Amino acid sequence: MGRLKIRRSTDFDRTAISAIYLNAFGPEQGREIVELVNGLFSDGTAKPLLSLVAETDKQIVGHILFTQARLQPKYQDISVRILAPLAVAKDFQGQAIGRSLVVEGLKRLTEAGVDLVFVLGHPDYYPKFGFRPAGVLGFEAPYPIPTEHANAWMVKELRAGVIGNVQGKIECAGVLDKPKHWQE
Ligand SMILES: CC(C)(COP(=O)(O)OP(=O)(O)OC[C@H]1O[C@@H](n2cnc3c(N)ncnc32)[C@H](O)[C@@H]1OP(=O)(O)O)[C@@H](O)C(=O)NCCC(=O)NCCS
To answer: Model's pTM, two decimal places?
Structure first.
């Protein structure tokens, strides 16, 4: 594999990004996620969004998306994002590309002054990057997460001292605000 580059995506990358999700999640679930990603790109309530692609040998092999979210009751000064979705093309998995996308995304959000990042995902994967189960820390997901999957709802603190001082329910972007997107 050539040198890996992580960069912001452009409109020219949309087809390649869709291909990543169809490849990584398969045709059925992949199509749903492509619809979600395209919906979030044109959803005003998802902005500011951070969309990063992983590129090697001029080929896009991974993508990650962070979208705007809010903590209810309204804590005005707490800046929140949701990480969804993330995927790496099958032939390129297990080579730390997912890690590079998560780490670079969190670095850019920290520099942008974001306080908390939430994800509903693999409970063994995201703790590698400092994510912790969010429910027990007082953060409710937009829709109830089944108890057996409670650990899949996680939070990463980017500014020290936020967790423990605020809690509440997360309000996500309009397109993501459907129960089907919150079933692990
Ligand atoms: C999950 C995914 C994004 C990981 O990206 P990747 O580039 O393959 O993974 P990385 O090389 O960054 O893996 C880093 C580490 O996480 C581990 N890991 C990878 N996928 C994992 C998973 N699903 N659950 C737990 N650990 C996982 C790897 O073993 C590796 O461990 P190590 O650091 O101890 O060596 C990728 O496998 C993928 O796209 N999967 C299909 C779609 C999907 O499940 N997306 C995420 C939904 S939440």
So the answer is: 0.96
